[in-house]
Task: structure prediction
Amino acid sequence: MAEDEQEEQQTEEGSETEQPKKKKKWLLLGLILLLLIGLSVAATLYFLGFFATEPEPPAVEEEQAPQEVQAAIYYPLKPEFITNFEVRGRQRFMQVEMTLMLRENDVVPALELHMPAIRNALVMLMRGQSYEELQTPEGKELLRQQALFEIQGVLEQEIGKPGIEQVLFTNLVLQ
Result:
């Protein structure tokens, strides 16, 4: 009987020592599982670019730094231009309002100073146009480009640079 009691005590002690071992195994398995889930989430976020930082632009010396694009300045040419045409014995008229687009503030005083030469060049250009050609979109675009070249030519001659980027027709009426 004494032996039976000893065996029972040993089996009770053995089961008591096995229970903490089982708890430790489950706890360790749970921690490993949580670690794997965390790594999976981190890898997914990494590949989706969540952790990506914006690369720094390479250092550029001041001499080679690109110039910033200045805001556009719009300079309307007032008063509008009115030209007449003789078409098959009838008088036809064209009224054009133009605005110049430029980027440098120092060109505005030059425009004002040389406005008589600019207006003369534009009047001469418009007087040489064909009424039939001006009725097409291509003809109007060609007139716009020619006006740009005329103005840039006057400014190039007077101030040494083209000065303007675009000529914009804000109103063009043919009748």
